[in-house]
Amino acid sequence: MAKPVEPRAEPDLRVLPKVDDLLREAQDDSELVNVPRGALRHAARAAVEGMRARLRAGLAVDPAEARARLREALEAARRGSLAPVVNATGVVLHTNLGRAPLAPEAVAAVAGASQACALEMDLESGERGARDAVVSRLLRDLTGAEDATAVNNNAAATLLAVNTFALGKKVVVSRGELVEIGGSYRMPDIVRRGGAKLVEVGTTNRTRLEDYRQAWTKRVGLYMKVHTSNFRIAGFTEEVSLKALVALGRKKKVPVVHDLGSGLLRKDLTPALSGEPTVAASVEAGPDLVLFSGDKLLGGPQAGLLVGRRAAVEAIRKNPMYRAMRLDKLALAALEATLRLHAEGDAGRTVPTLARLNLDAGTLRRRARALGAKLARSGVRLELEVAQSASEAGSGSAPAVELETWCVALTRPGEGAAETARRLRLANPPVVARVRSGRVWLDPRTLAAGDDARIVAALRNAYPT
Ligand SMILES: *Cc1c(COP(=O)(O)O)cnc(C)c1O
User: Fold this and answer.
1) pLDDT tens column, 144-195
2) Average pLDDT for residues 286-292, to the nearest whole number?
3) Minimum-distance ligand 1 atom for the alpha carbon of 397
4) Disulfide: which of 12, 84, 307, 413 matches 145 by Cβ 3.0-4.6 Å?
5) Is the CB of 227 under 6 A from ligand 1?
6) Which of ligand 1's atoms lies nearest the C-alpha of 156?
7) Complete DSSP assignment for 293-359
8) Average pLDDT over the chain, rounded to whole?
9) Is 389's C-beta closer than 6 angstroms to any atom of ligand 1?
10) Contact 384, 370 (CB under 8 A)
């Protein structure tokens, strides 16, 4: 028998204008004559839908605002869906906001590569060159690995490693390391789709070298160690060091791959994350390959980096799937520029991701105060306070680490924090902030130069006076 449905007070949706009426009105508007009909229809729909959402959320809606909403929707469509937003969340590597912000040098390199560029040409001889040659050399220098290459992302790197070394064979992974990274990436699925069979060893909290040894048969193609990027197992735990696994792999003639995820090159780059494992340490332990992302703690574009032994990297390059997962020239240009910044030795300051992680509490407090003062002068009615809080690295990097920060916590009198945050997201430019304890928090740690003024502009157009 069906459950009785609870009666619920529904808002009166009849106050909303009809999309067709709004569209007809817009078509008669002389200022909109050049806008294609499809775009107008889309904007009219977006305007009415936005008003309906507000009604459903229990907010007041004035039918007369429909035309203004339609114009806003047209304007937003013209800006494009990937136009810049202000990241005020305090999450340095915000996956939903595109992870690592690129350095100006990387942005310039992308612009340079956007036209014809020597992607696969040796300009000296005019002959064909390898597209990963420079990135490979920089990665070798930076990590101490014998060889290196790059593909589309770390998921692709993992898939490729499994497929190259364990196609039709088994991949041995500890039960404590079967991670899921943000829904669409689950280690067991990647192994299966890579053409291998997963063999889980140990338990969730304890895995010993003996477990890997006992799992060995002639059918084992790969021992894989995975950094538990976005979670921590604490308490009664035991894991096998990469070094011990490498020694076992060598004895059994089974390749060893370390999926490191966040890819911090060296400890001194960001002292705040001193607990994160480093690429240099993993390479030093001697596995066949170390895999990591380009857009996490390296601070570059989306990419998957594979560094390690010469024969292993060569085997990766020979896999036909490598071509299907290769980097495009724009990402390659940004990656090369980012690696150069690392090579120049001051990446803790020049690579924005690392520079933001390295901001100290005193600087952040000063910046929060300056932002608060600008907001107080903005003419928008707000209650403001500069308050202590915590930022995070994000993207599964160092999940247990809280970085001390100072924020501007604001409320708009008479409005809930969720609604204020929504208005900021829909403003021009969009501002994404954190909502906590009934207030909207703006964290200067993740703001770029000029963002203070952008936040003031966004508030002014979210709350016109
Ligand atoms: C982030 C992460 C991945 C996925 O990397 P992408 O570059 O996002 O594809 C894989 N493994 C680990 C351990 C990670 O932390």
Assistant:
1) 999 999 999 999 999 999 999 999 999 999 999 887 776 677 888 999 999 9
2) 98
3) 15
4) 307
5) yes
6) 9
7) ESSSTT-SSS-EEEEE-HHHHHHHHHSHHHHHTBPPHHHHHHHHHHHHHHHTT-HHHHSHHHHHHT-
8) 93
9) no
10) no
* Rg of the chain (C-alpha set): 26
Distance (angstroms) between ligand 1 centre and the Cα of 382 equals 40
Residue 153 near ligand 1, beta carbon < 6 Å:
yes
Of the residues 173, 293, 302, which should be mutated to test ligand 1's pocket, given the most ligand atoms within 8 Å of the CB? 293
Q: How far apart are CA 243 and CA 239, in angstroms?
A: 12
Instruction: State the pTM of this model.
Output: 0.90
In the chain, the amino acid numbered 248 is: L
Instruction: Tell me, using a 6 A CB cutoff, whether residue 293 lines ligand 1.
Output: yes
Phi-psi region of 379 (alpha: psi -120 to 50; beta: other; left: phi over 0): left
CA angle 67, 72, 76 (to 5 degrees): 150
Compute the average pLDDT of residues 116-137.
94
Question: Ligand 1 centre from 206 Cα, in Å?
Answer: 23
Give, using CA atoms, the residue closest to atom 15 of ligand 1: 261
